[in-house]
Amino acid sequence: MPYSSMSKEKQKELMPTHKADMVFECLECGRTYHIDQFLYICPKCKSLLKIIDKNFYQLKKVSGEEWRRIFDFRKMINCEFLKGIFLFYELILPCIPSDDIIYLGEGHTPIVRANEDLAELVGTDFFIKYDGLNPSASFKDRGMASAVSFINYSIKKRNIKQLLGICASTGDTSAAAALYLSYLKKGVVKSVVLLPQGKVTSQQLSQPLGSGATVIEIPGVFDDCMKIVEELSENYEVFLLNSKNPVRIMGQKSYSYEIAQQLDFDTRDLVVLIPIGNAGNITAVMEGFLDLHRLEIIPELPQIIGIQSRHANPVFRWYKEKQYHSVKVRPSVAQAAMIGDPVSFPKVFRLVSENFQDKFFVVEVTEQEIMRYMLEANRHGHIVCTQGGETIAGVKAALREGYISRGSKVVVDSTSHQLKFSGFQQMYFENKFPKGYEIIPDKVLLNSPTQLPASVSEIARFLHLKKIKK
After folding, report:
1. How far apart are CA 334 and CA 320, in angstroms?
2. Could you list the residue range(s) of the whole structural domain that residue 310 is in?
3. Considering only CA atoms, which of 37, 152, 157, 42 is closest in space to residue 104?
4. Is residue 392 in some structural domain?
5. Residue 464 contacts by C-beta under 8 Å, 6 or more apart in sequence?
6. pLDDT (0 to 100) of residue 338
């Protein structure tokens, strides 16, 4: 429906009018700082920050039913700045003027019912949300859309002449950061990414290089890269693009808003499964549903289940042992989750303690299970990455532990595109995984090309085709 054809009254109803008062708030000491600066930790106590809208209470003047109607109607209009994650403008970063919002096609990824045979194999019906269908082929675009829009806004408001955006990455963050930063004015913004050498797929490495970013590889794992960018962000004038930056989290909350909308805002008996890496995404998912519940847009908070590989499982160990310790990661095909000391764990702890006490669970899965369920999902018509395979394996584990009730609405997160991890599939088919992965291919899942002569009769014979009788 063309926006221009609507009555002025209807236009006014759908356009954001909320006057936000947004601040950074320290998770520990509670101090607040104005939003118009680059902050990643509290200057006083060095704890993590979250972003709050001190005028959030004003949003409650609109009923939950009316918010549902507004969000549904916005999907029908041709208004560019409301097309992506900012369709939920009032809940993302309403301090950013509409003219400064960067939209590259992110958000509103489909939610697809699992193939019946796959559901039977796993043990329950479930849906897959394909976040690999974002512009850079991963869920990271949600957070980059908010972060880079914030950069765009800050450059104009503060008259910034030069800015360096930097991130540590296992692959997807670097691809998203480089893509979105490349959209901004050349000569003003520079993109730099730090990657653990040899631990990023060739497909993922090609993305920041293709977007023109400066790519730095260092020995070690993601945690080593993260320590460096954290120190750089504390001591030098750079803009941190990891999920430690709360402006990233604000955009990633859109995942929750979309699931709710795609299920007609009925969150009763809803279970959402999320792979845990740096813990930013599961933080955003919980915060997003919490926003909707506070505004009475949804009837209840869903159950949240985090998934970790046995090779990188600090949050699972905390959940079981009630004490948190970082772990030394081992090789994992779920590379985005191969993090031994998640930066956002304090936020997870706070959210679980205050809001999700009886609705939060964590399970662990093996590398063998991750590869199996990635391949099984893709063999049944889905587009699932290794993290998606990890999450589907997590459904099986959660059913085994009794965390999922029969009849629940189950949604799993496939965070990235299958083709980014095609190298692991090939390693599986060729049985070339190093011993550290602890993966032994199942012969039933193996596949390889067959070479035949360019002959109809030879191909027909190979396929055991019967000739049509004329």
Report:
1. 21
2. 111-136+249-436
3. 152
4. yes
5. none
6. 84
